[in-house]
Design brief:
This protein is of the alpha+beta class. It has helices at residues 264-304, 310-316, 322-332, and strands at 2-4, 9-11, 32-40, 44-52, 61-65, 74-78, 83-89, 96-100, 106-110, 115-120, 129-136, 145-154, 166-172, 177-182, 194-199, 202-203, 211-216, 219-224, 233-240, 245-255. It is elongated.
Length: 366
């Protein structure tokens, strides 16, 4: 009797009825079917099959471009070529596997499959970048296992989206003008992009006060100092890399200097402030006039009211006792320094003869 699988075989003697097979360490390769076979003189040969699975998550993801050679995970292709991305991930159970483009978009995927592939027809410069393949199954915790590659598309330079082939610009005489070119991002050999500026057919260089040139990466700048009549006209920049070149044009025209417009906001603000001050002054003037009129009317009313003398009081009162008359005579005898002639006297309270309470007052009204 013998029990074996694809990796191990163990035999037993003719008198034994039991055989045991032990696997010291389960690995992914032990995913197989085990067969137990027995031979007997009477019964002949009998076989029993035992299948066991070894469950494991994706541990090795292989991501490549078919029929292409890579260098450190970088694949270089030419523009308009066709290429196929393929990803393989082994696991049990089979994983969900997907390919993601440089814009972090899922472009293709399969469920319960160990491989997936994606074909790009007519490769363009925008297809360049980093691609990734991700695989995961039920035993995967967190993110799946990821493998990456970089696609380099050899493209000639071209302007960034939005730039026109020829740009028309205006500039004021004696001003400084800045011309700038920005190339679309593409993969190429480092520091291999070259910019050359021209005025008409003459190339421009640094070293004088008239032109300032600077280039860094995919961007180049030309500054023209103190524009004169001879500086107007056509300029161009030529951009070259290892694949090809591109020419961009600029047309500079004179712009008349205009007088700065007056700040209408400031004018209206000043008008508003003046109107506010005028309103406040008008209100103050009105209040002062009102108080003056009130004061004048009060003075006039005081002058029109006749002063009461002792004789008037004597005529208006029917009866005076002796104390009242003495008080009146005493007031008449006062010196001018102690008499108050600026206003009428307060009305005198008259008492009847039977009233023993004397409350007669003569008080000047100030």
């Amino acid at each position: 009797m013998a029990c074996f699988n694809t990796n191990t075989t163990q035999n037993a003697s003719i008198t034994e009825t039991t055989v045991t097979t032990q696997i010291a360490s389960i690995a992914n390769r032990n995913y197989s079917k085990c067969t137990c076979e027995s031979d007997h003189l009477v019964g002949g040969t009998q076989k029993t099959y035992v299948r066991f699975d070894v469950l494991f998550p994706p541990s090795d993801v292989h991501f490549t471009i078919l029929v292409r050679q890579s260098e450190s995970g970088k694949f270089v292709v030419n523009k308009n070529e066709e290429l196929t991305l393929k990803c393989i991930a082994e696991s049990n159970p089979h994983p969900e596997i997907m390919i993601i483009n440089p814009s972090n978009e899922k472009i293709t995927w399969k469920i319960n499959n160990i491989s997936v592939q994606h074909t790009i027809h007519n490769v363009s410069c925008t297809d360049a970048g980093e691609y990734s393949c991700s695989a995961r199954n039920l035993l995967t915790f967190g993110e799946g296992v990821i493998s990456r590659l970089i696609l380099i598309v050899k493209c000639p330079p071209k302007p960034f989206t939005g730039n026109l082939k020829e740009m028309k610009l205006t500039a004021v005489l004696h001003s400084d003008v800045t011309l700038q070119f920005l190339a679309q991002e593409y993969f190429d050999e480092e520091n291999n992009t070259i910019f050359t500026w021209y005025n008409q057919n003459s190339s421009l260089h640094n070293g004088g006060r008239k032109y300032i040139l600077s280039s860094f990466g995919l961007q180049s700048t030309l500054i023209i100092r103190n524009m004169t009549q001879s500086d107007y006209g056509q300029y161009r920049v030529e951009v070259k890399n290892s694949i090809g070149h591109y020419i961009h044009y600029y047309k500079l025209q004179e712009k008349e200097a205009t007088q700065p417009k007056k700040d209408s906001t400031l004018i209206w603000t000043l008008i508003g402030v003046s109107a506010g001050v005028s309103a406040v002054l008008t209100i103050v003037a009105g209040v002062v006039a009102f108080l003056c009129c009130k004061f004048i009317r009060k003075k006039q009313s005081q002058k029109q009211s006749p002063k009461q003398t002792a004789e008037d009081i004597h005529e208006n009162q029917s009866t005076f006792n002796s104390n009242e008359i003495e008080a009146i005579h005493e007031y008449e005898d006062l010196d001018d320094d102690y008499r108050i002639d600026d206003g009428p006297y307060v009305e005198m309270q008259t008492m009847t003869e039977g009233d023993n309470t004397h409350r007669d007052y003569i008080t000047p009204t100030l």
